[in-house]
């Protein structure tokens, strides 16, 4: 069974970098099993037929009364005809960039759980039915306002599902963000050795200080004050042990505003003063 790279096999213009993509999928075979390398997160809006998806540790099955939001990854899925002699679904792909932009715009960026669930089941209703009917790949190809219209459709479905499912859906969306590209962690870890205050780092993360502290504790299992201080002092110790620098040379570079505060913090952590290390 060959591996299908989706959505790449559906995109005609391979040179175009598409952050949002809609594809109308139809089949008339009785059962189709596929090994799928899903390169983007994807809504599967099933209109006719049944679908079963196997993940590493679980599986899920849906019919035309439900839709799926699937996390990118390697999955096995089976598509089956129902009572009608056709299988039909609309696939809506979106990149991590679009997702992070949306979360920054509309949510508080709190992700208070660590469960890594590869799917979210959506119960269809009248609103979703109308939304699904409004999606067609031909609508969003080579038209002057196609890109802007697709952006609006993406925000529409995301906002509707946030309104429908609340925190459960918001938390799931945050779990779709790859750890290595998390904008929160990227910002925090780029400011470890700065002399910015916590509220200033929180501001750069588009969070209030209290929200920042909650999110930080969830991500790092430590308070931001202790975590940042430990990182800075450990770096200082390494620099001093090299023997080329003194405390007065490094305290600003590792996030302290004055030498006295740095020296006190260093001795409290390691039991010796910075001069004892560098001498």
UniProtKB/TrEMBL annotation:
SMART domains: HTH_ARAC
Pfam families: ExsA_N, HTH_18
Keywords from the named record: DNA-binding, Transcription, Transcription regulation
Superkingdom field: Bacteria
PROSITE patterns hit by this protein: HTH_ARAC_FAMILY_2 (PS01124)
Sequence ranges assigned to domain HTH araC/xylS-type in this UniProt record: 182-279
Protein name: Helix-turn-helix domain-containing protein
